[in-house]
Amino acid sequence: MTTIANSLRNGPDERGFFGLYGGRFVAETLMPLILELEQAYEDAKADPAFAAELADLSVHYAGRPSPLYYAERLTEHCRALTGGKFGAEIWMKREELNHTGSHKINNCLGQILLARRMGKTRIIAETGAGQHGVASATVSARFGLPCMVYMGATDVERQKPNVFRMKLLGAEVTPVTSGAGTLKDAMNEALRDWVTNIDNTYYLIGTAAGPHPYPAMVRDFQSVIGTETKEQFLAAKGKLPDAVIACIGGGSNAIGLFHPFLDDPGVAIWGVEAGGHGIDVENGHAASMTGGRPGVLHGNRTYLLQDADGQILEGHSISAGLDYPGVGPEHSWLRDSGRVTYVPATDREALDAFMLCSKLEGIIPALEPSHALAQVLKMAPTMDKSQSIVLCLSGRGDKDVFSVAEHLGERM
Amino acid sequence: MTDTTIDTRITRRFAALAAEGRPALVTFVTAGDPDLDTSLAIVRALPAAGADVIELGMPFSDPMADGPAIQAAGKRALDAGQTLPKTLELVRRFRAADAVTPIVLMGYYNPIYIYGVDRFCADAVAAGVDGLIVVDLPPEADDELCLPARAVGLNFVRLATPTTDDARLPAVLANASGFVYYVSINGITGSAAPDAGAVAGAVDRIKRHTGLPVAVGFGVRTADQARAIGGNADGVVVGSALVAAIAASLDAGRATARTVPAVTALVAELAAGVRAARARAAE
């Protein structure tokens, strides 16, 4: 591959840094494993057979390519707000149509092939809302490997359908009671498992965070989103979109969409964090870049929600999938560089977007991309009708109907 | 060869014990557990009970390398309001009455990073800290804290593990000073008991690469284990067993009259164990 000197797509450096962010801040026991993983991934990348097997599974097992869909009624809705004068076209990259119902399968297929290649016989994963846990359990079942999913006890309680799905798929779900029993605690426990079972175990991290090479590797596996989007949009409109936008928890669907567009200066890139009850509410949101500051957690330096003593805060979001106090390090770097604009959307705004999308498009989105849609609904009416925005619809909302009902005061 | 020129209470203590012909008992407790005053009383009582080196845990919200006992200790301390400035204050108050017992602060990088590395190093020296163990800073990250700490005369104690092979050991030892902390098992603190025979082999292997003393920890909880491991190790580290003793002494999470004696009684047993180590080894 040719390297463009001043490309924004060359990161990370050989030590795993995107500028100040990223790196390998792990205990010595894990260091040799991380180095082994990096080598194995470099070898796999250079092996056409690896790419071919992943491509075949992506098509026949996951259902790729996912469609790029013109959301005509949402577009009309935004145009009507301006009396028909303005309003960009709203397009959706339909990652929710993938097998398992989200973008998570893209990464899990890549990593399970790598695990097999490395001769690992046991898979561990962390999960928050359960989407990554389900995708990990799915690929583990497909390849006949035992899978242990760590999930915060609080999340086990509020995401029961996904817990049962994982069990149906043959995975073991371990509730984590340490800390507040949410995603970061599940990740801590997965790291403790890994450090104890180093010989046979592969840690399948679900987002573009953690120690190098995970952020780069997960990004690479998710970049199929942006690569397809670019081709599909060009085929449909003969040009590139004016803006692409995605929600950010750890940020894997977002970096997958963004990365192929980083060197296209005409494409504005927007990331939407979970604003929860509002950025001004102490520990009431999960917007690490808008409301946090750089620190070191889970093997990488990145923006984190933390107190004045450097203790990590739990954060809050209506969406369990965005409820993580950190963010992938490449996003932190893209934020500081100014290439990507990161903004928050509140619980309320996401909920409103969730409802609107369901009613106008006949698509029940997950609460996570509903945050991105909330920002689209603010932006589109300010843009010209000749312009277009592509939103990554990263997951379907079936898992969220119970919690949405609760927020709306409906009994089910 | 490893640089051992950073002279601190740690290097002096290990040298003195080597001359005496016995390993060091290195005791770990979490600063501020279960509260600041009780924690200070515990730390002050450790040397008389037989501790040779004190490791003081800096509590962190996300202790990824620790097992349930030390996780719980950190949570008790944080719930009681412990912060990094208060941990430094605890050292300062200890040091006012004890000029010789080495103190090593052990923890995770983020609270130090947020405090500010240069300011932290200066304040740690001023408080009377001798060394640092920071679990999530491997040698690849030496420019973060290890080198600034060395520059102000702090020992940076390195962790070596069963996964650290001969090819990697030189990198791990390159900027190490004070002593090397051999993590006896692949796992978290307070896990299964290490196999004394395997540990002895690993200690010998590390000693072929360095002149630094080698202390062994993770999973050591009894005087018998301390005696067995102390046969060829220069130090034996006990942590989870001590914080578990603290936990067992509490009443609804609060310190009782039993709390300090519970720790000192166990330390005294362990101290007898390390003192018997070489006598037994010589048999």
UniProtKB/TrEMBL annotation, chain A:
Matching InterPro entries: Trp_synth_b_CS, Trp_synth_beta, Trp_synth_beta/beta-like, TrpB-like_PALP, TrpB-like_PALP_sf
Regions crossing the membrane: none
Sample GO molecular function, one term: tryptophan synthase activity
This enzyme's EC code(s): 4.2.1.20
Record has Cell cycle as a keyword: no
UniProt entry tagged with the keyword Cell inner membrane: no
Cofactor(s) essential for the protein: pyridoxal 5'-phosphate
Source organism, top-level taxon: Bacteria
Complex and partners: Tetramer of two alpha and two beta chains.
Pathways per UniProt: Amino-acid biosynthesis; L-tryptophan biosynthesis; L-tryptophan from chorismate: step 5/5
Protein name: Tryptophan synthase beta chain
Catalytic activity annotation: (1S,2R)-1-C-(indol-3-yl)glycerol 3-phosphate + L-serine = D-glyceraldehyde 3-phosphate + L-tryptophan + H2O
Gene3D superfamilies, A to Z: 3.40.50.1100
One Pfam family cited in the UniProt record for this chain: PALP
Broad enzyme group: lyase
Domain Tryptophan synthase beta chain-like PALP intervals: 62-395
Function: The beta subunit is responsible for the synthesis of L-tryptophan from indole and L-serine.
PROSITE patterns in UniProt: TRP_SYNTHASE_BETA
Family of this protein: Belongs to the TrpB family.
Keyword line: Amino-acid biosynthesis, Aromatic amino acid biosynthesis, Lyase, Pyridoxal phosphate, Tryptophan biosynthesis
Species: Siculibacillus lacustris
Gene Ontology CC annotations of this record: cytoplasm
